[in-house]
């Protein structure tokens, strides 16, 4: 079985916050942040699997601290746990006050991607090998998160059977 270290899938992207990126509280608009989270995470998944990957789920994006116009925002993502064909990608968003240099975790997120072969079927991915303390901690707790996702997916399927596709007019 092929193996890859988390660092091989690491993506780091830093940008400034401009006035057209903020909401009416002058803090970064959540929708923009979520789009950048998905972008970074999808590159991490593709670097790990080196084949087509789709987003299967996003657990949650936890907004821990607002990001303002005087901050830079850094997205760091890497594959933190692997199943057979699925990859959990962890994304941390670090805001840095550009005047003081203070850095803080502004948000964190876990996304799951599934690797697909050329005919669109789920295909095996290399096992991930964690190295740093943070990577090891996330790896060791990954199985439990994957179990919770399976339960949630079943509930979503039940809900999908129940909700209507009727036109509302
Ligand atoms: C994700 C998808 C490929 C799964 O296909 P499937 O045939 O149902 O796959 P399986 O049930 O065999 O599961 C394959 C793997 O995906 C994982 N998986 C499937 N749905 C999942 C979900 N919602 N969350 C987390 N993992 C999921 C399974 O646990 C399994 O993992 P493993 O191989 O590591 O054990 C399919 O549901 C799909 O194409 N969804 C739409 C994806 C998409 O359009 N994304 C873009 C969103 S804008």
What does this entry look like structurally?
By secondary structure, the chain is of the alpha+beta class. The protein has a single domain, classed as Roll (Thiol Ester Dehydrase, Chain A), CATH 3.10.129.10. Helices cover 29% and strands 37% of the residues. The protein is built from three helices and seven strands. A hairpin with a 5-residue loop joins strand 5 and strand 6. The longest helix is centred in the last third of the chain and has 21 residues, at 142-162. The mean pLDDT is 96. Bound molecules: coenzyme A. Coenzyme A binds next to strand 3, strand 6 and helix 3.
Quick overview of this protein structure:
The chain has 169 residues and is α+β, with helices and mostly antiparallel strands. The protein has helices at 30-49, 133-140, 142-162; strands at residues 3-5, 11-16, 52-63, 71-82, 86-97, 103-116, 127-129. The strands form 2 sheets. The chain has a 5-stranded antiparallel sheet, sandwiched between helices. Strands 1-7 form a two-stranded parallel sheet.
């Amino acid at each position: 079985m092929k193996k890859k270290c988390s660092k091989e899938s690491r993506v780091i992207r830093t940008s400034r916050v401009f006035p057209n990126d903020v909401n009416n509280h002058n803090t970064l608009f959540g929708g923009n942040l979520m789009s950048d989270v998905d972008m970074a995470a999808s590159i991490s998944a593709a670097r790990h699997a080196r084949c087509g990957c789709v987003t299967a789920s996003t657990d949650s994006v936890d907004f821990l601290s607002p990001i303002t116009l005087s901050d830079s925002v850094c997205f760091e993502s890497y594959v933190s746990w692997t199943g057979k064909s699925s990859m959990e990608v962890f994304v941390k968003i670090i805001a840095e006050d550009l005047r003081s240099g203070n850095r803080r975790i502004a948000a964190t997120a876990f996304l799951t991607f599934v690797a697909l072969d050329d005919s669109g079927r789920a295909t095996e991915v290399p096992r991930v090998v964690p190295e740093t303390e943070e990577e090891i901690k996330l790896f060791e707790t990954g199985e439990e998160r994957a179990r919770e996702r399976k339960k949630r997916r079943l509930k979503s399927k039940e809900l999908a059977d129940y909700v209507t596709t009727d036109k509302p007019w």
